[in-house]
Design brief:
The chain is α/β, with parallel strands linked by helices. It is built from 5 helices and 6 strands; from the N terminus they run E-E-H-E-E-H-E-H-H-E-H.
Length: 122
């Protein structure tokens, strides 16, 4: 059984913007798929990234580490990152370690797309 699947699509109205939607558990076991997918994505140098966490059931410290790594890589490129619609389990973890204040967290994918368009001037 696969612990995490990832779908990807363009961000509407943002050239080279990408929306990733991991579904399942973003944990040390199985989270390697997320890390590998993101590493390949970062090589393409997206102008912006939204990570839709609505179907991400759970996250552990390894998963949080992946998100921080993505944040740092995109910040170095000057590309914005938004987290969208975190599931209850993910939000609890992000809140408990103070990361909802660190990341741009939006309640929905539509809100995240609007935020990214505003930040990129698209």
């Amino acid at each position: 059984m696969e612990l995490l699947t990832i779908s990807e699509r363009p961000v509407e109205g943002v050239e080279e913007g990408v929306l990733l939607a991991p579904a399942g558990q973003m944990r040390a076991r199985g989270g390697e798929a997320f890390r590998a997918h993101v590493d390949a994505l970062l090589e393409r140098a997206p102008t912006a990234l939204i990570i839709d966490l609505g179907k991400t059931e759970s996250i552990d410290s390894a998963g949080v580490g992946y998100l921080l790594r993505v944040h740092d890589a995109l910040a170095a490129q000057g590309a914005p990152l938004a987290l969208a619609a975190p599931s209850a389990g993910v939000r609890i973890v992000l809140d408990s370690i103070g990361l909802t204040e660190f990341f741009t967290v939006c309640e929905s994918v539509a809100d995240a797309e609007a935020e990214i368009r505003a930040r990129t001037g698209s």
